[in-house]
Request: fold
Amino acid sequence: MARDEALLDGERAVLRRTAWRDPAVTIGRFQEWRLVELAGSPRAPVRRITGGGAILHGDDLTLGLVAASPSPLFPDRAPEAIAARLSHAIERALSPWVAGVHPRGGEFAERAQRGVLDCFARETPFDLVIDLTGGGTEKIAGLALHRRRGRVLIQASVRRAGRLLPAEDGQVLAAIADHLGATTAAIPDLDPGEEERSWRLIERRYASARWNRRIREGAAGPDLGAGADPDGSDGAPPPSDGTADPAHPRG
Amino acid sequence: MADIPSDRRYQTSHEWAQKQDDGVAVGITAFAAEELGELVFIDLPKVGAEVRAGEPFGEIESVKAVSELIAPVSGKITEVNSDLESSLEAIRESPFDEGWMVKIEPSDDAEYEDLLDAKAYKAQLASGE
Reply:
């Protein structure tokens, strides 16, 4: 999460994945911590800066895409258009492995779903779903955004579910990067300045109970003793990850 | 293009600011409100909080998207539109009136004068930025 935000504060367009050492839960920017905790989260949730619902990570492909908006990649600033752009790229990238994947479509009903904790129980037109044999659909990918100073971060979770995706996440990441545009390419990691920013964010935000529990200044909040665990790392360096950069051609 | 009131100033991030007797009222423009789509949550500062021009003073969540609200002027928050908590629709239905978000007691009048006037903001919208 910190690395995604560090990239949002940078200048380049990057698609990256977050790897999880152990299962972890992230929650949406304005979700109530206590409700997620009561729902039986296996670990202290980490609050994202993006919207949407809670996600149990570990058996998913967790993606972060940052870019300017408006830009050639995202000519339309509207959140709906930005999300649709990435959703479409993921759909096309998954299609060789996931039969029948398609956007949910339909109308937005965000306010009606505020109380739904689990991202994968919420329904949004730009969700990716597959049709079930017995009728209905199963959500396999959800997206959420944060817009800051002419740039946007889109975080996505694609369910691996033990059957849907190839073992090698890098294949999927590269395919998504390809479908985002001809100039997309894989790069190895964050640069030193971005890494430094991510560590500052961990200290200031993602390792802070005040942030994770959303305790407002001056408010009588819950117990501050149980800190959260950014990137599932227990204070260790963030896990290594694959990163693709839509701004630079692949060799 | 939606009507852009000429009785206030604007910034490129689509917030408006209007000098009033009791401070500078701040909100987002009709363009920004329409672009956000269905609104879900707003987080505004408390009265007494200090804000800085060009820095976020709050956040608003729409279709799974959290967007930062950027202060057009520096100063102290003197009033918050608490009606928005129960009526977020006002931001989309009446962005330039009932959809105001905060009032700021400005600490530097020059910042207000440096903002875009309606004509310049219209030009920005026309350019697609």
